[in-house]
Amino acid sequence: MSEVPQIKKRRRISYLPSILSIAMVLLMLGMLGILTISGKKLSNHLREHFQITIFMEKDIAEGDLKRINAQIQQAIYTKEARLVSREEAAQEFTQEIGQDFVSFLGFNPLLPSVELFLKSTYANPASIEKIDTELRRNKEVVDVVYQKSIIEEINKNVKTIGTIMIGLSILFLFIAIILINNTIRLNLYAMRFIIKSMQLVGATHGFITRPFVVRSLFHGLAGGIIACLLLSIMLYWLPFWLDGIQTVYNNSQFALLFLVIIIAGVIISMLSSWISTNHYLKMKIDDLY
């Protein structure tokens, strides 16, 4: 009787490679998910830092300038709008060139302006053209200046990277399903005679498959939790190695990703166990050898 606990202990230990294999596959899938989420956050960050400068009439009244700035700030497309007076513009330009050009010229040639930063969903060429047209309808606006080539390049690269990431996600998910399925199937291979023996003594398919499916549920759950713990450790230490990387973190989406990883591990493990068990039940006894 003293051997029974030892047998159970050895059996639990034998399950460890299966759990770790599932965890490593889910870790690989999770790293791709983190890369996808961070890439989207980075693209939004770049779009929201794209600047549009709206130049006003030289002699515009201060009250009108503030009114127009307030209107722009309240616009649906605005992330941030900053009013720059002629004096502030002169100070900034003086700091850039390292010379007081106002004293040299005898007057300030710069125009008051509003520096506009768009929400990421509006930072695309089509939306910017509409915003440009709308802003120019204001008679106090002299010009609207932005670098069209930059926003086109940003959106082009975002679309290209997005397509690549979708393709990689599908490929990695396919690989994850195959690897987890093979891991579960190898574990059940050692029990194929037990599965067949239970069938021969009259046990139903549901009765035979249930314990294996339940066991796979716990294996998938454990593997998913281990993968999420490893990903959490990686996310914690990355800022110490790559300064500023935390700016592209999205903790709410990371939490959702961890939940998806755990659920995926459970579902894939249970489904693989059910398929493999039924596969051995359908086999003839001679084919088991």
Structural class: alpha+beta
Mean pLDDT equals: 82
How would a crystallographer describe the biggest sheet? 4 strands, antiparallel
What is the H-and-E element order?
HEHEHHEHEHHHH
Tell me the helix content.
Answer: over 70%
Q: What percentage of the residues does DSSP assign to strands (E)? A: 5-15%
How many separate helices?
Answer: 9
Q: What does the radius of gyration come to?
A: 31 Å
Shape: rod-shaped
How many beta-strand segments? 4
How many separate structural domains?
Answer: 2
Model regions low in confidence, pLDDT < 50 over at least 5 residues: 6-11
Strand order of the largest sheet: 2-3-1-4
Question: Roughly how many Å apart are the termini?
Answer: 31 Å
What report would you give on this structure?
- The protein is α+β, with helices and mostly antiparallel strands and 289 residues long.
- The chain has two domains: 178 residues, no CATH class; 95 residues, Alpha-Beta Plaits (2-Layer Sandwich).
- Helices cover 72% and strands 8% of the residues.
- The chain has a four-stranded antiparallel beta sheet.
- Helix 1 runs antiparallel to helix 6 and helix 1 crosses helix 8.
- It is rod-shaped, with a radius of gyration of 31 Å.
